[in-house]
Amino acid sequence: MSIENAIIVVNKTRLELLIERFNTKAQAKFYIEHAGGDFSDYEREHSNFKRSLEKVQKIVGNELKQKVVERKFLPNFIFSEKDIAVVVGQDGLVANTAKYVNGLPILAINPDTDRFDGVLLPFDTQNFEYGLHGAIEERAIFKKVTMAEAQLSDGQKLLAFNDFFIGPSSHVSARYKIEHKGKSENHSSSGLIVSTGAGSTGWLSSLINMSNGIVSTFNKGQKGLRMSMDWEDNKLVFIVREPFRSKYSQTDLTAGLITDKNYLKLESLMPSNGVIFSDGIESDFLQFNSGAIVRIGIADQKAMIIQNG
Q1: What residues form DSSP beta bridges with 23?
Q2: How far is C-alpha 42 from the chain's CA centre?
Q3: Which residues, listed in sequence order, are joined to residue 151 by a DSSP beta bridge?
Q4: Is residue 107 within 8 Å of 84, Cβ to Cβ?
Q5: For the domain bounded by 5-140, which CATH number is listed?
Q6: Considering the entire predicted model, what is its pTM?
Q7: How far apart are CA 224 and CA 186, in angstroms?
């Protein structure tokens, strides 16, 4: 189906957020400079972003109808099959957009290449027109990124581009029953993460680094764990954080692979404050309290990120 509309997804700049907090730019400047900060850096970042956004809007407007949508409105925004998502922002904005676009093409643009690494941003304001025309003319090359899906027994669903966190919303122990590959245990831990290939260099890698650091300190000579996952790999990894062994809780089932044939099942044993959130966005979550059962597996939907060449 031909593309007719561009939905340009943005986040507010740090300067805009400061002005919201302090009501005026002058008050924001006073606060930052009084604390010893460089307010001009906020201004430069804001100006660079606005120039980039204006350029994107001008070029996209020559080809398609367009609408600018802030990230916070994505969970309730209804995309159509004739849309393309044009993300102008940092890498995290691409990850969060992918969960809500129902497999539509994503054109990811780095608005400030001197400031942002752009691992998930194949284009900048100088070359994104190539990707735009490729999508319109149906000749674009895509990276099809595997995502994770959490589905509660009541039908509620949530997708993750990088990872899920399942556990308590505060610093208390998570209580749940875990089932994987025919085995089950009761757990008391600080929660679990489930990582995709795209997220494997983030939160998952920090847990592996922690484990390797402990092993190298107390069991010298043992080789550390290394894990390599491609974004397109049809598998997920789960790791239980800080599992506690007691008369009630066990610690044998603390990590594993989730595949098409082996999903992860969790039953909450927490009366309150249990949550499931994805990609670090705690405000967009599923409640996971006593009686809730969640099945976590590979999502049918892929993130379709347009590539440069």
Answers
A1: none
A2: 24
A3: 157, 295
A4: yes
A5: 3.40.50
A6: 0.88
A7: 28
Question: For the segment 208-233, what is each residue's pLDDT rounded down to a tens digit?
Answer: 999 888 888 888 777 778 888 999 99
18 DSSP β-pair partners: none
pLDDT, one tens digit per residue, over 240-295 is 999 999 999 999 999 999 999 999 999 999 999 999 999 988 878 999 999 999 99
What percentage of the chain carries pLDDT values higher than 90? Answer: 86
Q: Is 208 exposed, middle or buried (0-12, 13-18, 19+ CB in 10 A)?
A: middle
DSSP per residue, the chain:
----EEEEEE---HHHHHHHHHSSHHHHHHHHHHTT--HHHHHHHHHHHHHHHHHHHHHHHTTSEEEEEEGGGGGG----TTEEEEEES-HHHHHHHHTTSTT-EEEEEES-TTT---TT--EETTTHHHHHHHHHTT---EEEEEEEEEEETTS-EEEESSEEEEEESSSS-EEEEEEETTEEEEEEES-EEEE-TTTTTTHHHHHHHHHHHHHHHHSTTPPPP-----TT-S-EEEEESS---SSS---S--EEEE-SS--EEEEE--SS-EEEEETT-TTSEEE--TT-EEEEEEEEEEEEEEP--
Instruction: Tell me which residue has tokens 């809007």.
Output: 57
Pick the CATH number of 147-299 from 3.90.1170.20, 3.30.559.10, 2.60.40.1740, 2.60.200.30: 2.60.200.30
CA distance 41 to 48: 11
Q: Residues 6 or more apart from 221 whose CB is under 8 A from it?
A: none
Which residue ranges make up each domain of the chain? 5-140, 147-299
Least Cα distance to 152 among 253, 308, 266 occurs for 266
